[in-house]
Design a protein that fits this description.
The structure is a homodimer.
Chain A lengths: L10 E5 L1 H4 L1 H14 L4 E4 L6 H17 L4 E4 L2 H7 L3 E4 L6 H8 L4 E6 L2 H6 L7 E4 L16 H10 L5 E4 L4 H8 L5 E4 L9 H9 L5
Parallel strand pairs in A: 1-2, 1-8, 2-3, 3-4, 4-5, 5-6, 6-7, 7-8
Helix pairs in contact in A: 2-3, 2-9, 3-4
EC number (chains A, B): 2.5.1.3
Organism (chains A, B): Sutterella megalosphaeroides
InterPro entries (chains A, B): Aldolase_TIM, ThiamineP_synth_sf, ThiamineP_synth_TenI, TMP_synthase
Chain lengths: ~210, ~210
Amino acid sequence: MTAFDPASLRLYLVLDPDLCGGAEGMIRTTQEALLGGVTFVQLRAPRWKKRAMAECARALLEVTRARGVPLVIDDHADVAFAVNADGVHVGQQDLAVDDCRRLLGAGKIVGLSINTPDEMRRAPVDLVDYVGIGPVFHQTTKRDASPALGLEGLRTIVEASSLPSVAIGGIKTENARAVTATGVDGIAVVSAVCGTRSPRDAAASLRSQIVR
Amino acid sequence: MTAFDPASLRLYLVLDPDLCGGAEGMIRTTQEALLGGVTFVQLRAPRWKKRAMAECARALLEVTRARGVPLVIDDHADVAFAVNADGVHVGQQDLAVDDCRRLLGAGKIVGLSINTPDEMRRAPVDLVDYVGIGPVFHQTTKRDASPALGLEGLRTIVEASSLPSVAIGGIKTENARAVTATGVDGIAVVSAVCGTRSPRDAAASLRSQIVR
């Protein structure tokens, strides 16, 4: 496995094609958000065909690599492989972590979504680089999301984990400081950056609240 | 690339989870249809999560391998890789054929959907094992299908191709003989087998019409 740097999780942007306005919008959002301090990018386009996803991912990689920031693909390890992305992020119903690791190899990032303490206990710690824990608060961008954990629920899972972690779900400037105080390595956002007037300002504002 | 046997395309079953009644139904349909003479199976479940798809594919592989029939996965090369399926089938908007070949290796099957003479001309013949040409007739199971080719349209594409080919789209016992007379190596069916009272009888009836 790579020597994964938990500091790269500090401000984790999940791109949403609808909020950003398609491929062009996601590329522009990424460019701006990187200037605002984003440290990690995930391409998540669950309703897109893979040809379009791969094309967009290749364009995004030019942007992220220029700033040394990782780009992972949500769900589709085959797309990650095809475009030589930095890794894949999978949920509990997606391809198993060991299959992703076998497909992508030791040098790539494999992230896993965690919604409950039990899922955290069952996470294959030797195969996963980081966990995404959430949703912390009520959120609107993920249709099939689990119930919100709240700050105490988040803290319980973080404290039980030895893996680098990023919190997700309803995080914005107003609550970012309280979230990072639970011990997570970073925060992940969708609508707090995607579709905002200035993704750069939005990212900078979030970044200023991260106390770690 | 494998020494792909065009005879395996003779009667090609595309599994539909809705018509078959879920994973159990697809496994039962496959068992019966193989007894009726099906020579190739594709798992196509575009709205399923990959964990469930992989689980179902593993169960299907036990059934198909016992009879020496290939099983390919629609669209998801990563699932095909994870379960060690016999290959993948991709459409024009899915992952590119060269990426699938690179991911799965030379020993696996890569099939490509072709809807127009132009797509046939642009098909990477050195990387593809077979093409699926269609839709021949009006069909109801694929939501985003192209306009029907008709028998003459099919024949034009088949004659322009050096690759093994299977025709798809609205094929049933009544028109199967006319379809095979265009020169294709086989016919692919969905609703002519999935969801019928006896998939075995349905397959045997289709098989009896294949003149090649």
